[in-house]
Amino acid sequence: MQIKTQWMATTFAALLAACGGGTANIDQGGPNPPFIPPNPSQTEHLQTVVPPPTYGANTDNLTSFNAINQFRASLGLGLWAQNSKLDRAAQNHVDYEVRNKTFGHYETKGLAGFTGVGPADRAAFVGYITNSIGELAITWNGSGGIEDLINSVYHRSGLMNQQITEVGIGNSADLQFPAQCVDFSNAKNSQNNSPTFIAVYPLNDQKNVPTFMTRETPDPIPAILSPSSPISYASVAGSKLVVTKFIVTRQGTSNPLITQLITKDIDPNLGLIPSHEAYIVGVEPFLPDTTYNVHFEGLIDATPIKRNWHFTTGAK
């Protein structure tokens, strides 16, 4: 089975300035929101508690919402609160996709269910006015779809946005055409981590890590046919992360795996990775039921940093 994923993010520049963003086919669309440069004296301001969502029990929307916030909480990121208008915008787009048997971030005027060309247009249609909105789309419903987004590069980056506060989720009810849309923004307020924030993924000692990566559109590693699950290192939004060493070895061995580094400056799709994130992807899938050690060295705004951690893969 092929899962389609796409990523899109519209520009957040104006909004943030005012506030002082088999394989799975993911479409990452709508511009990935830019980040406010951190103030050295800024203190952490995180949304650690959000109102209980109103999604029905055991629905795909609820499992997706919980999966997103569980992922963010595990990294020390602020939670995303449900926004009913973004819910309607996301669901409208899913309904459009199902009715027209199409997939992606843009709609065509005149087709059934059209509510706006791009994510910001569709948000405005339901009364959510902003020019700063990100959107993730995947042809897989519920928490399984979110897990596939996390198991990618650009989509994981979107879900790790440190300033976003609100999210809306839509899922298809058509079993023959699964589709999910996640719209997110911070039109009302923003949040931020402390200047010393660090996050790695997979987490230290994490179990059941996927052996291979979810393929996405656009593709950060088009030359690698069967890539491993991506490994990421992130510092506070707005900082400059420089990688001097980023290696992964299978436990009990000393030879580093052959990997490809992806950063803001080393990215076939320039502009989709922020300056405070770095990823490596192996040229072959990880072995199942195997522990891997990761060693990272680099600079965060000229300050040397070093980190070691490990994780274990699941079954193939």
Topology, please?
Layout: E1 5-9, H1 13-19, E2 26-30, H2 60-74, E3 81-82, H3 84-100, H4 119-125, E4 134-138, H5 142-150, H6 154-159, E5 166-171, E6 180-185, E7 198-201, E8 206-209, E9 216-217, E10 231-235, E11 241-250, E12 259-262, E13 277-282, E14 291-300, E15 303-313
Parallel strand pairs: 1-2, 2-9, 3-5, 8-15
Antiparallel strand pairs: 1-4, 2-4, 4-6, 5-6, 7-10, 10-13, 11-14, 12-13, 14-15
Main sheet attributes: strand count, strand direction, barrel closure: 7 strands, mixed
Broad shape: globular
End-to-end separation in angstroms reads 15 Å
Low-confidence stretches: 10-41
Helix content: 10-25%
Radius of gyration: 19 Å
Task: Assign the structural class, choosing from mainly alpha, mainly beta, alpha/beta, alpha+beta, or little secondary structure.
Answer: alpha+beta
Provide the succession of SSEs: EHEHEHHEHHEEEEEEEEEEE
- Tell me the strand percentage band: 25-35%
Average pLDDT: 89
By DSSP, the count of extended strands is 15
The helix count comes to 6
